[in-house]
């Protein structure tokens, strides 16, 4: 029997834990809702790791280590969660604490970085050496693979594509600055724009799809209306695609990747929305870096994060 690693995708709403062999094949897994209690959360992680090991009947000494992807700002070198708005932790030494609890080596990284690594090793990125993974959901984030290696930057915070400014003087972003890509084109921004439209008396098709409840309108509702041919929904998504086109063209001109992988809930609207983004990107990127570029949807779905965490553990411990 060979060796194994554990991958954990620690999300704000659920935790996905899996034990995998050295080929990255999952042999046991568990998914649980995320505990909102500061001290119980560490013990939940410990319990889930023991759970997948027990379920697989793999002896603990065959487990080489644990990779964890967490949302927010992570100091990769120390394994500390600096800020994680969706978790009950701040400046939390996750690596040290989980290592002490389980007596196994632990590595922690940002979830967008690990999603990039997951798609690179096991998903849409196979066969590419230079790719950028971009997630468009509640927020916007990116992970960068250069020459087969995750690029983290000098302080581990590379890939903050969501906070590149695409509309100077635009609306205020969560980060305190104005006109960030995230505030112009995230799922949150799309939902917000649609609710504004409805509040002004327009967007009746969108409102209908939300059963007449303006508060229930989100990016998914806008996506459904768009796919049903509603021109107002198309207008909102055209605008989001315009700003995503600016952000992605900057990435393409700067890094010249061979592949951009798009993931996250907003991208799940589907191929017609991807096509709007491709059109904007084609118009805005330089011809030379654009000519060999492929833009694809992520393929690992809900497994993207956990596969990235497994890939991190394999890189680090095997
Ligand atoms: Zn920002």
UniProtKB/TrEMBL annotation:
<dbReference type="InterPro" id="IPR004654">
    <property type="entry name" value="ROK_glcA"/>
</dbReference>
<comment type="similarity">
    <text>Belongs to the ROK (NagC/XylR) family.</text>
</comment>
<dbReference type="InterPro" id="IPR043129">
    <property type="entry name" value="ATPase_NBD"/>
</dbReference>
<keyword id="KW-0547">Nucleotide-binding</keyword>
<dbReference type="InterPro" id="IPR000600">
    <property type="entry name" value="ROK"/>
</dbReference>
<keyword id="KW-0808">Transferase</keyword>
<protein>
    <recommendedName>
        <fullName>Glucokinase</fullName>
        <ecNumber>2.7.1.2</ecNumber>
    </recommendedName>
</protein>
<dbReference type="GO" id="GO:0005737">
    <property type="term" value="C:cytoplasm"/>
</dbReference>
<keyword id="KW-0418">Kinase</keyword>
<dbReference type="GO" id="GO:0006096">
    <property type="term" value="P:glycolytic process"/>
</dbReference>
<keyword id="KW-0067">ATP-binding</keyword>
<dbReference type="GO" id="GO:0004340">
    <property type="term" value="F:glucokinase activity"/>
</dbReference>
<dbReference type="GO" id="GO:0005524">
    <property type="term" value="F:ATP binding"/>
</dbReference>
<dbReference type="InterPro" id="IPR049874">
    <property type="entry name" value="ROK_cs"/>
</dbReference>
<dbReference type="Pfam" id="PF00480">
    <property type="entry name" value="ROK"/>
</dbReference>
């Amino acid at each position: 029997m060979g060796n194994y690693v554990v991958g954990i995708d620690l999300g704000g709403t659920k935790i996905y834990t899996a034990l995998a062999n050295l080929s990255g094949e999952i042999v046991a897994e568990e998914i649980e809702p995320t505990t909102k209690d500061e001290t119980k959360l560490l013990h939940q992680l410990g319990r889930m790791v023991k759970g997948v090991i027990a379920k697989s009947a793999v002896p603990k000494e065959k487990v080489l280590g644990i990779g964890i992807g967490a949302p927010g700002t992570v100091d990769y070198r120390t394994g500390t969660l600096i800020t994680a708005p969706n978790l009950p932790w701040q400046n939390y030494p996750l690596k040290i604490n989980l290592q002490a609890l389980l007596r196994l080596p632990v590595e922690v990284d940002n979830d967008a970085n690990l999603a990039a690594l997951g798609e690179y090793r096991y998903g849409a990125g196979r066969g590419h050496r230079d790719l950028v993974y971009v997630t468009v959901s509640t927020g916007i984030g990116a992970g960068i693979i250069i020459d087969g290696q995750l690029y983290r930057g000098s302080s581990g915070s590379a890939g903050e594509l969501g906070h590149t400014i695409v509309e100077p003087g635009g609306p205020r972003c969560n980060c305190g600055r104005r006109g960030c890509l995230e505030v112009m084109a995230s799922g949150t921004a799309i939902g917000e724009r649609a609710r504004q439209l409805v509040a002004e008396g327009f967007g009746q098709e969108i409102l209908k799809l939300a059963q007449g409840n303006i508060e229930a309108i989100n990016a998914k509702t806008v996506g459904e209306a768009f796919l049903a041919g509603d021109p107002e929904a198309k207008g909102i998504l055209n605008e989001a695609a315009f700003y995503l086109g600016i952000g992605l063209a900057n990435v393409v001109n700067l890094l010249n990747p061979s592949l951009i992988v798009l993931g996250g809930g907003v991208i799940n609207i589907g191929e017609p929305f991807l096509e709007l983004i491709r059109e904007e990107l084609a118009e805005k990127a330089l011809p030379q870096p654009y000519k060999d570029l492929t833009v694809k949807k992520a393929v690992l779905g809900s497994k993207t994060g956990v596969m990235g965490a497994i890939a991190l553990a394999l890189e680090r411990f095997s």
